[in-house]
Amino acid sequence: MGKVTGFLEIDRQDRKYKPAADRIRHYDEFVIPLSEEATRNQASRCMDCGIPFCHNGCPVNNQIPDWNDLVYHGEWKRALANLHSTNNFPEFTGRICPAPCEASCTLNLQDQPVTIKTIECAIIDRGFKEGWVVPEPPKRKTGKRIAIVGSGPAGLAAAQQLARAGHEVHVYEKFAKAGGLLRYGIPDFKMEKHLIDRRIAQMEAEGVVFHYNVNVGFDTKVQDLVELHDAVILAGGAEKPRDLPIPGRELRGVHFAMDFLPQQNRRVSGEPLTTNEPILATGKHVVVIGGGDTGSDCIGTSVRHGALSVTQLEIMPEPPAKENKLLTWPDWPLKLRTSSSHEEGSKREFSVLTKEFVGEGGAVKGLRCVHVDGKMQEAPDSSFMLKADLVLLAMGFVSPVHEGMLEQLGVDLDNRGNVVADTRAYKSSREKVFACGDMRRGQSLVVWAIREGRQCAHAVDAHLMGETNLPR
Fold first, then answer.
1. What is the three-state SS of 304-318?
2. b vs e for 194-207, b when ≥16 Cβ sit within 10 Å of the residue's Cβ?
3. What CA–CA distances, in Å, run from 13 to 3, 35, 279?
4. pTM of the complete model beyond 0.90
């Protein structure tokens, strides 16, 4: 390492947010990047660990100390090449990844981890600014034809890797644009969609062919896809949301989060809503059920709509503000996490179970809730009412959608309803059919989807060619 005492001399400094009063007036990104000098200083804090635990924390196994050292020495282009060697889309992970690498950082033992995510984002943003990110078309074609169903991060990563290996790659996407949850689930204030568009342009220049508005299993028979291609990769998401089947569920104003969030993203991009039922939080008391990232995104979007109030309910107990380092490090800890959306104006309630949606005139007007203990048992005399004109269910996802494609294929499913495939060959129970990402592992992080897409590409290339040079 170039600055062996950097972590002793320089304090941790991370990106700041624009003021909440300003950022809630628009849907643009609001993170303020560090200067080049500050970024290099932060990179110099990466200590010469005997064992770089950040490698284990990062699902795509980014070579974090290596590109930190390159940034510190001002070798940004080499840092970009190193970063791209393990991650196809660092501009996505540098914005929306929860950074398990930082949780694993040795300096996190003192709550001062290296700002890995910020440095990663600085590298790729500079790479695009300098024109270093260019199409990398293959030098030769293999004559093999591959279909990828789903253009989320897993499908895109697999497509780019396989196209660069010389295969003819066709991506089938049921919506009008590529990106999956990157485009339709993550709000623009967390990641603007032109970042996806420029990657799609790069991939098209590398030979990837995108087929939009094609819902495989409905608009086209999946058997035709299997017959026309040498391999088919199932890279759709775990799109079936977890429901809350309690009295009043049928009332107007009770919606899944993934009906609410894509609508707003389509409004921002000028894309048709694809529904006659607009879901707006303007002037309403909003209750978000579910304490994860999707719930947080619902909060930020509702605040920007102009909601009168936003309350988030979580059935689990409130986590501790800080983890026990000696017990949890270098693993991902359970602790209270406050997002930028929480800071924009919302109330959080923990250990709350919703028992009933209460309505008037067919529309939701409130929730009857109770407090529960750590064993999910109701606390005596803890029932209370919560006013609500809009309820958003953000309790996660249970499995891929089975109707259509998966039913037609007849692939084996595990006990959670995901497609059965291992993490070595990524083969499903159906010949020529592979599966990766959330469709195989269940609801997970974007960075895990990228990892699985890359590894699946490695497996498919080896299957078709007998050998492969693609990294896992």
1. HHCCCEEEEEECCCC
2. ebbeebbebbeebb
3. 17, 11, 39
4. yes
